[in-house]
Amino acid sequence: MEDNTIINHDNQINVEEIMHEIRERVRNQTPVVRSVKTSNNSMDLPEQAHKKSPQNLPQSESNILNSNWDIRDKTYTITSHRKFLGKVLIKGRQIINGEVRRYIDPIIWKQSTFNEQVAHLCSLYEKRILDLENSLAQQNNQNLQKYKDLHEFLLKIEEQEKQIISDITHIRSEQSNNCKKVSGLKRIIEQNNVKSLSNIRENLKDEITSIISNKNPDIDKRLSLYGISKPGNMDYFAFEEHFRGSRTEIKKRQLRYIPFFEHCTNVLDIGCGRGEFLELLRDHEIPGVGIDINKGMVNYCHSKGFKAFQEDAINYLRLLDDNSLDGIFSDQVIEHLTSEYLISLLDQAYRKLKTESHIILGTVNILNPGGLANFFVDPTHVSPIHPAYLKYCLEIAGFRDVQVLFRTYDDRETDPLSGNLELIAADYVMVGKK
Amino acid sequence: MKIALITPWYGEFAGGAEVLARKIVENLLNDGESVEVLTTCSRSPFNDWWDDYYSPGKYNLNNVVVHRFPVNKNTQEWYHAINHQIIAGGVVSRSGEMEYLKGSIGSDALVKFVRNNQSEYVYLLIPYLYGLIYWSYLAAPDRCILIPCLHDEPQAYFSTTGEMMRSCALAFNAPEEMELANRIHSINQDNMAVCGCGVDLPRSFHPEKFREKFNIHTPYLLYAGRKDVGKNLIELINFFNCYKQEILDDLHFVFIGGGDATLIPDNDYFIDLGFVSDEDKFNAYAGAFATCLLSKNESFSFVIMESWGASTPVIVSEDCQVTRGHCMRCNGGLPIQNAAEFCESIRYLKEHPEIRGDLGSNGREYVLREFNWSKVVQKYMNLINKFEVRPE
Known about the structure:
The structure holds two protein chains of two kinds. Chain A is α/β, with parallel strands linked by helices. Chain A has 13 helices and seven strands. In chain A, α4 (59-68) runs antiparallel to α5 (85-225), α7 crosses α8 and α10 runs parallel beside α11. The longest helix of chain B is centred in the C-terminal third of the chain and has 18 residues, at 353-370. By secondary structure, chain B is an alpha/beta fold.
C-alpha cells in the first residue's frame, strides 16, 4: 500500500481541546441558549423564577390595617375648664354633639363594620398568600433539585456516550487490525498454496521424467514387439542433417499445417526430431510437446527450449487423459512403423484427441517414382504407406473428413499425370478430424 | 505509459468529481504524461443522460484530447425503476444492481474502445457510481485505477462496487474515504493510496477589494459553492438565525456560488452574491470571519481547502467524517454538532482572535504541504507505474 499517512504536525492549538471547551461552555449555559434552535421565547432557570415570584406583604402595612379599621372616636369627652360658664358650655356642646352624632354615627358605624370585614379578609388572604408562597418555594426547591439531578443524569449519559464512542472506536480499530491480520494470513496461505502447488507440480514433473527415463531402456524392447528397430549405433541426428534438409527448409514446408492448430492449447508432435514444428508452434504462441525415441533429438529440442520427452508414441499417449489433446502432428514418422503399430497409434490418438481436433500425418508419397526409389535410403524405414491405405486406417480409427494433401516443396500445383516428376509431390499428408 | 481517464461528463460542468477529473488530467499532462479523456456526448448530470448533446468525435479542451462517445439510448426505465427502489430504502438484488447499471449513463461504443485497446492504456475511472464506469472496468479489468469518490450511500454497498474495489487499484481523496471503503468491502490494501487532490491558489489575496466591490464592511461568515439542500444548507441557515436571535452584532452571512437562491432568507443579514469570479472568490475567503460548510457528504471538499488556502478557519459538521478528519489533522477548523455549538464557536472565535488566526494559518500550512500538485501527481504516478508497460 502507498503511504496513506497525512502527517499531523503538532500545533500550539488543538481543535479537540477547543471543542471540548466550547462544549463545556454550552453545557454551562442556560437552557434558553441551549434550546436556541427551537425556541424563540426565553425560558428562565428555576432560580430566576424563584426570584421573580410575588413579594410578601410588608408586616407594618398589615399592622396599620389591623389597628386602624375601627374609625369610631372613643377618645372624645366634653369638658370645660371655666368654673361658672363651663356648665353651660358643656351642656351646649353635649346638645350639639348629640345632634351631630345622631346623623354621623350610623355612617361611622357602617364604615367601621366594613373596615373590620376588609381588614379581616386581608388578614385571611395574607395568610393564604403566605401559605401559597411557602408551597411554591417548596415546589421550586423540589424542581431545582430535579433539574440538578436531571443535569447530572445528562452529564452521566454524555460520559457514557463518550465511553461508548471510545469503545466503538476501539472495536473498529480492533476489527480493522483483525481484517489486516486475516488479509495477511490469507496472503500467507495463498502464497503457501502457490508454493505447495508449485512444489507438487515440480515433484510430479520430476517423477514423470523419472518414470519416463526409467522406462526408456524398455523402448527398444517395446518397439521390437511391433517389429520396429532403432537405428542401432547409427547417428540418426547426423543422418537427418545430411538427408532430410535444413531446419529452415523443413519449417518452411511444415508452416502450411499451422492453420489446422490455431487457438489450440495442447498439441503433440510425434517424432519431433530437431523440433522444427515445435518451433513453428512456439512462433505462433501455440503450446506444444514433442516426443521422440532418439535421445539426441530430444536433447537438441531441450537445448532449444522446447518441451520434449524421449518416449515412443503409444506408450506416451496411454499416459494421457482421454480428450486431453487438441492436435497431433507427425511428419515423416509413420513410414518407420509397422502396420500393427500404426493402427494402435491411430486408436490411441483418437482416444486422446478432443472433438473437432485434427491429426496430421506426413509421409513419403509412394506415387512419386523418385520418392519410392529413394525410400530405402533411410535404413530405418519399414514400409512405404499408400495414401489410400492410410486414409482407410484413419477412417476405421474413427476420424472424419479425412483428406489427403499432395504438395510440392515449392508449393506448385501437383500434376501426377503430367509426366513431370517435379509436379508429383514427393510427400503427402493425411488430415483427419475427430 | 499511456493514460486514459474515463468519466461520464467532461467539459463545462463543475461538480466535485468532474472538477477533480479535469484537474488530475491537466496536471498529469503538465507533468509530461500522455493522457487522454474518454467520455460521453451527454452534457452534464443535469441534462438528459440518454441523449447526445455533443457530436461523437475527438475534441481538444484546454490542450486535453477528449474522445466523446455516443450514450446508450432508451435505458432510462431500468434506471428509474431501481432508483425509486433505492430512494425508498429497499434492498437491491444482484440482478437489480445490473439493471441499474445498464440503465445508468453508459456508452457501448466507449466500452468497445476500451476492450479493443485494453493493453495500450492504464485507465483512470471516476467516479464509481455509474454504469459507464462498471462496464469500462469489465472491459479491461486488470488495467484500471478507480478514483471512487465514495460516500456512505446505497450504491456504495452494491456487490458490483465491491468487485471494482477489490480488482482495481484505488486512489482515494481522504483517509476517511478509504476507511469507509474498507469497512464496507474489506478491500485489498496492497494496491491503493490516498492521493487527494491538488489545490490551486492565487499568489496573493485582497479581501479589501472584495469588501469594496460588494460594499460589505461588516464581519461576515462565508458559504461557498452550490446552494443545495444536500449540502445541509437549511440547517446552516437555521443555526445562523439562532445566532442572530441570541447575539445582536453586525455579523453577516455571505453566499457565493450557484444553486437554489430561494433557500436564502430574505433578510438583511443574509447576502447572496451568486456566481463570482475566481479572484472574487478567493478574496471573499480571505476576508471572511470563517467559512461554514455543514455538508455531511464530502469526499474531499475543495471549499475548506480553498478557505484554508486563504488562511481562513472553517466550521464544519461533526457528522462529516472527511471534513472533520481534515480539521482534526491540521487543527484548522471547528467541527460542530448543533446550533448551540455553532453559536458558541463563533462567540469563542470572536473572543479569541489569536486562535482564529492560528486555525487559519494551520489550515493553510496543511493545504500547501499535503495538497500541492507535485505531491498529488507523484502519488498517482506511483500507482500508474505499478502497471506493466505493454507493447503497443
